[in-house]
Amino acid sequence: xxxxxxxxxxFNNGYTQYPNDYTSAIFGRFYxxxxxxxxxxxxxxxxxxxxxxxxxLEANDYIGFCVVLNGLLLTRIDSLFSLFENVFAECVIKGxxxxxxxxxxxxxxxxxxYTNKEEIDLLTEDxxxxxxxxxxxxxxxxxxxxxxxxxSVKEYVIDDDLAKIVTSSYTNGYTFIYKSRGYNTAxxxxxxxxxxxTSKEKAELKERLYKLQTEYEKTLRKKKQFKVVLILFVVLxxxxxxxxxxxxxxxxxxxxLSGANxxLSGANKTIIGQKDxxxxxxxxxxxxxxxxxxxxxxxxxEKKCRIQAxxxxxxxxxxxxxxxxxxxKSTSYNFSTGYLSIDYFGIKTEVMPITIRVYSExxxxxxxxxxxxxxxxxxxxxxxxxxxxxxxxFYSFEILKENKIIGGGRN
Length: 411
Description:
Elements (H helix, E strand, L loop, with lengths): L2 E9 L2 E5 L5 H9 L5 E8 L2 E9 L5 E9 L1 E3 L3 H17 L3 E3 L5 E3 L8 H17 L4 E3 L12 E5 L4 H10 L2 E6 L6 H53 L7 H76 L4 E9 L4 E8 L3 E11 L2 E12 L2 E8 L11 E6 L2 E7 L1
Parallel strand pairs: 10-11
Antiparallel strand pairs: 1-2, 1-5, 3-4, 3-11, 4-5, 6-9, 7-8, 12-13, 13-16, 14-15, 14-17, 17-18
């Protein structure tokens, strides 16, 4: 299935998309009508069907994906949310385009998309593979209803009748499907929850540490004041003017000293308790930093594994494409249309000339020369053989490149 894939959105330096072409006006209309954190947007333009997804981020940023089909209609709209949400979650976890900040919020991480072509190619391939899995839910696009404006807009929520949504998708110019909850994957929520909880605990511990330090400083000042009061009190007693009142004054002084000693003892106990609390808080902070280092190490290990897999894939791909540009997986002939459908895995993009031989039980019937546009990845192409092949006979097909058989099949 031939499909074009676009990435777009507002990032650090404003709006950007890849690839950059006339579709920017269409994607701008997508965002203007978006109302929820996440939504599907379907747009019909003559024979082209745009299946888009918009996810809003922090600070008025957003990211969008769009897959464009030519002459084809998707009849399982309910499958789109899970497809796009899984791709978005994978994008956040990798962190090249968008990522989790310390508070667990998703924010942008790029200025222009074209500077991240390697990451975009991987996301594009994921979306193509996802749409290929929906091939059983794809049919030919009905004719345009000219009685309906090409700019008409229809809005739904995900719980509405899916049949009505599908009809609207090819009847109206724009169909918006909103989803207000349940738009994150379980892994996404788990990762986000750990970061949010860690950030909150860190902030609470810092606040508690500040309060304890403040109380500790107050206690130290009180302790100094107690000493000053005692000294002054002793000086006043000693400067008494009468021996007659000396015994009473001494008794009062002893009581005051006893009370001061008790106060100092209580202050010392408070200080000891606060020191223990500070020690516990420091231990908790140390444990949190250890957890953060473990998470960062796991993330780096995952990135290294992905890079190794991509390197092996490129080496394999380079070795294969030196011999031929595609691998034929299967063929099927449609008696009603006269087309032979060829499913293949493209190794490199090129226009490749081929020869097709058609056999019956009695031998070769005819052969035909043609060419197909090879696109990298899982794709398919069709070649018109004519409608002269009868449905009640046995046929086989051979596909040749430069007189070498590269594939075939039978009906």
